[in-house]
Fold these 2 entries.
Entry 1:
Amino acid sequence: MALTFHGSGDPALTNEMLGLTTQLKAPITVFAVGQWLEQHPDIAGQILGAGHELANHTYTHPVLSQLGQLAVSQEITRCAAVLTEQTGGEGRWFRPSGIESEPSALILDEASKAGYPTVVGFDVDPRDYQDPGASAIVARVAAGIQAGSIVSLHLGHSGTVSAFPRIAAILQQRKLAPVLVRDLLA
């Protein structure tokens, strides 16, 4: 199963989460927002340096399904350009922002044109971005997690940081090994 994070928010909380992932030996895939990477240029190197994976989550994090073709294309390619500038590569994966269901044909087509033939969704969403508290986040992950799951979490939320050690313990109890998206989908 894969633990994925939407990359945005307070870099101090990101650093705290990266410390926990190292301590708990839990690799993560971060779908980063391009503007966030530009605002915090050290973050990409810290994520990759810790052995994690970095991927594209649009440039400004809009509700992508409400945009036209040109704007969708620009959101994907601008984030790819930031990733390339900061890491030497555009990341292997793309995750659309602001959509709760399957991405539209337009989004899939523009992602493919930008070099992302695989658009990565998730099957476990504890809605940690709503800040329900660590216990609720843990319970929601525990209720949905299974072999092959992709969990959607968010950097920049203190409840998620607090919940992470308990999530890692649940994975260990259930004999579920967290892996990068590239390893899960390989």
Entry 2:
Amino acid sequence: MDVHVFQHVPFEGLGSIASWLEDRGRMVSSTRFFANDPLPQIEDIKLLIAMGGPMSVNDGLTLPWLKDEKQFVREVILRDIPVLGICLGAQLIASALGAAVYRNPTKEIGWFPIQSVSTSKTAFHFPSEYLAFHWHGETFGLPPGAVQLARSKACENQAFQFKHNVIGLQCHLETTPEGMVALINNCRRELVAGAYVETEEVLRATPMSRYDGINSLMEDVLSYLADS
């Protein structure tokens, strides 16, 4: 085992991350919580990736595996193993590190810019402004000891870094055209009118250049973690 993936629903997979891992010959295993897969042995993991999902980190009463997942994420971080969290995955990292996860003032679904805010010389640096894809209704507080990396107008905490090898992304940089269709087909009910919610028609018309842009930035994040 090399890279282990936490997948919470069938329709939110690795997206563009899969080709990055394949190109580098990384061995990939997964825990599919929707299929009741067991947790792996921590000693076998070189990189943990926690993907997104429509559930909340706070749904522990109805999804009891969330407690075990958060504890596992915390243990991986304590062992200094690199961790990447995306959307729900970032919220899991934040919660595991003691931060609150709560409803964002507004849903953010669609293509909206994020702005870099990091002043740390050693942390990952986003471009000063970058168009990213979003699909979330909740957000998180900044964990104690973490460095904020990015924000957007709709959501203050878009990305953070803990120590040198843990990064949480509220936005989706891994999304592909296939992933977009899967999100729409499974979460269409969330596309309610709002200042930061684009319509299904707009989302389906996304030009390929936008996917190329976020996927390239996702590769930069992965390379940063790999070098850590």
